[in-house]
Amino acid sequence: MRIVLVGPPGAGKGTQAQYIASHLSIPKISTGDIFRANIKERTQLGQQAKEYMDRGDLVPDEVTINMVRDRLQQEDARDGFLLDGFPRNVPQAETLKKMLAEWDTRLDVVLELVVDEDEVVRRLSGRRQCSQCNRIWHVDFDDKHDDVCDDCGGRLYQRDDDREEVVRHRLEVYAEQTAPLVQFYSDEGILRGIDATGPVEDVTRRALDALRPFEK
What we know:
Blueprint: E1 2-6, H1 13-24, E2 28-30, H2 31-40, H3 44-54, H4 61-72, E3 81-84, H5 90-102, E4 109-114, H6 117-125, E5 127-130, E6 136-138, E7 156-157, H7 164-188, E8 191-195, H8 200-211
Parallel strand pairs: 1-3, 1-4, 2-3, 4-8
Antiparallel strand pairs: 5-6, 5-7
């Protein structure tokens, strides 16, 4: 099965991608993983990406797409994959469609994790990281009543990108970039949305139920 997973920051894409890919015995492919692998292996594309990342610039679509192309041609992705973090916009989606058509295949389904904006803000702005061991705690989900890590005694702090105003800005950017992408796949007739609130195992069950009609 060939799947694209979409959803806002804080929707739990990384967690669900891992569970779904494992259940379906297909590789989970994220742009972050691809970037890190190419940079570590010092590939030409990795060196190009690193130059942009070191300057704090976004990696151009052309470099990202070429990395994805290389990854999808690896043996473990021949019979299926789950893409997490790609495509991020309609031009990337159109390129992916053409790429797969060259290989005489196509996406089976695009799974959207749907979460209310206020729930995303609660999830992300409630995170606290330990200054010593880097463990993440949550003010609502963990039984904690102080700012000390229960594992090592380190001080807990809120990362800048978890501040409420930053999270809401990230959601605005996501909506601006991804709403057209969601509409693109809806028009293609392959978009399926699921409620991504509640316990992780419940979300996984909904996801697998939504994917079941597409299993071959």
